[in-house]
Amino acid sequence: RENRRGLWSDSALAKIENYYVASKRSKVFHRPECPYASKIANYNKVTYNSREEAVKKGKRGCSKCKP
C-alpha cells in the first residue's frame, strides 16, 4: 500500500466507475461491471450519476452486484 502498487495504485483506483446503469424497461440498476449490465442494449440503457439518483427514479439495486 505504501508504495501505491497493485490494487492501491492510482491507475487501479481510476478504473472504479462512479455511475450506475439500468434498462429503460427494468426496475433494477447495476454497477457498470455487472454481468447483467453488459446485457443491456445501448439503445435501452439509462445511466445514473449516483445511487440516490437511481433510487429516486424508482429503481432498486441488483442483488448480484449490490450497487
The low-pLDDT segments are none
By DSSP, the count of extended strands is: 4
Q: Give the C-alpha Rg.
A: 14 Å
* Helix-strand pattern: HEEEHE
Task: Tell me the layout of helices and strands.
Elements: H1 10-14, E1 20-23, E2 28-30, E3 45-48, H2 51-56, E4 60-61
Parallel strand pairs: 2-4
Antiparallel strand pairs: 1-2, 1-3
Task: Please summarize what this structure is.
With 67 residues, this protein is of the alpha+beta class.
Textual characterization of the structure:
A four-stranded mixed sheet has the order 3-1-2-4. The chain is of the alpha+beta class and 67 residues long. The chain has helices at 10-14, 51-56; strands at residues 20-23, 28-30, 45-48, 60-61. It contains two helices and four strands, in the order H-E-E-E-H-E.
Features:
alpha+beta; four-stranded mixed sheet; 67 residues; 2 helices; elongated
